[in-house]
Design goal:
This protein is α+β, with helices and mostly antiparallel strands. 14% of the residues lie in helices and 31% in strands. It is built from three helices and six strands, in the order βββαβαββα. The chain is extended and about 65 Å long. The relative contact order is 0.19.
């Protein structure tokens, strides 16, 4: 199995067989298209470049449009290199059907960078005299 790119859609919860509420992250995973096959002879290492998510043609430059045309696909928003584990060719599609129930997966995520935050934004603390949290200043 090579790898697959996904996008976090949101959060939900499911109930287990014994009635426990389990929080779950909903991820839109794939389909991903193989946009380049890197070989040991040509590139010095073996890898697959896969693309995910649609992008308008007017937002892609001409070199990238040629790159996608060579793979026989539309422009992609995200490109990632992954190690080669099976024989995939240029233009092949990778979907979640390549996984089976009970498979172990490694998930890598990127958080939204928000820089240094104050306590109000970071932890939701209230300021002095904020009536929404039951604090009132009496004269």
């Amino acid at each position: 199995m090579a790898g697959i790119i996904g996008k976090k859609i949101g959060m939900t919860s499911i109930f287990s067989a014994d009635g426990k509420n389990i929080p779950c992250t909903v991820i839109e995973a794939g389909p991903c298209v193989v946009t380049q096959v890197k070989t040991l002879e040509k590139d010095g290492y073996e890898a697959l470049q896969i693309g995910f998510g649609e992008r308008k043609e007017k937002h892609s430059n001409k070199p990238m449009m040629g790159h996608f045309k060579k793979a026989g696909t539309t422009p992609k928003r995200k490109l990632v290199e992954t190690s080669v584990f099976n024989d995939l060719k240029l233009g092949d599609e990778i979907t979640v059907e390549s996984f089976s129930e009970g498979d172990y997966i490694d998930v890598i995520g990127t958080s939204k960078g928000k820089g240094f935050q104050g306590v109000v934004k970071r932890h939701g603390f209230a300021g002095v005299g904020d009536a929404t949290h039951g604090q009132h200043i009496i004269d």
